[in-house]
Amino acid sequence: MRKLKAFGQHFLRHPPIAERIAGSLQLPDDAGRHTVIEIGPGQGILTQFLLVLPNTEVFVVEIDRRLPPYLLERFPQLNGHIIEQDVLKVRFEDYVGTQPFWLVGNFPYNISSQILFKALQYRQQVRQVVGMFQKEVAQRIAAGKGNKQYGILSVLLQAYFKTEYLFEVSAGSFDPPPKVQSAVVRLTPSDAYEKTIHNHAHFTKTVKQAFNQRRKMLRNALQPLQYNFDVLPPNLPQLRAEQLDIADFIALSNAFVAPV
Ligand code: SAH
């Protein structure tokens, strides 16, 4: 089968790597049934290991119409569980209702940020995200302040998830090999920071605006939002976005919004 660049198709060649991704999902050891949604199953190298996880119902979301017939033939138990759509357009609730779910995949790299923003959007329902990303994105997800990778994605994700950089995968492990190295990351929702954010939309806006001009002092970078800097600790407006940790960003955005 010809791999399509437009769909970010780089298929894993080694089953043990796929098995390790599946094994990185932390499913509770209870009697309940767990819903796992795989994004971009391709020919099913990862799917085969998801299907044998105990007490698990697997859905797969695949945009390439050539693949579902192949997947169904290989895994008849996927009948009724293949969502033939662009994952960015899928309303997960249409398939899983209000049940919690785990998101997993060797993700198409061209839409990895959008997948992460979608996970953020569903954070109340997502129990965990385990995914393969290009290494640079994986580093950004997990980067802390002062690091050159630290940016919008780091702050927004770390405000809502515990992020773990799990392991790296070389380009040669894929067919065709991508131009970049890859790494697997795990995100687990955590409300430690979330509870302290007064206004989520405002928090997002503040973080984006601050990093839009990341070399500028916050006082200048945030000018367009017309905040009153007088209510902040005096040193804060003089720092640059990359010098603020998650709690600083929350304090910054909270300082402008009356708690509800
Ligand atoms: N998991 C497989 C394939 C990874 S390649 C493996 O490891 O071998 C990425 C997969 O995502 C491809 O199957 C591609 O067709 C699919 N894909 C790309 N864009 C998508 C989208 N917007 N929605 C759903 N699937 C997508």
Structure overview:
This protein has helices spanning 15-23, 47-50, 67-74, 93-96, 112-121, 135-142, 152-160, 191-194, 200-212, 218-221, 246-254, and strands at 11-12, 34-39, 56-61, 82-83, 101-106, 126-134, 161-169, 174-175, 182-189. It has 260 residues and is α/β, with parallel strands linked by helices. It folds into 2 domains: 5-190, Vaccinia Virus protein VP39 (Rossmann fold), CATH 3.40.50.150; 195-254, Helicase, Ruva Protein, domain 3, CATH 1.10.8. It has a 7-stranded mixed β-sheet. Helix 3 (67-74) links the parallel strand 3 (56-61) and strand 4. Helix 5 (112-121) runs parallel beside helix 7 (152-160). The chain binds S-adenosyl-L-homocysteine (SAH). S-adenosyl-L-homocysteine is lined by residues 7-12, 39-42, 45-46, 61-64, 86-88, 105-106, 108, 111.
Mean pLDDT over the residues: 94
Overall 3D form: elongated
CATH topology type of the largest domain: Rossmann fold
Overall strand count: 9
Q: In the CATH classification, which architecture of the largest domain applies?
A: 3-Layer(aba) Sandwich
What structural class should be given to the helix and strand makeup? alpha/beta
The radius of gyration over CA amounts to 20 Å
The count of helical stretches stands at 11
Task: For this entry, give a set of tags.
alpha/beta, binds S-adenosyl-L-homocysteine, Rossmann fold, seven-stranded mixed β-sheet, Helicase, Ruva Protein, domain 3, 260 residues
Short synopsis of the structure:
The chain is of the alpha/beta class and 260 residues long.
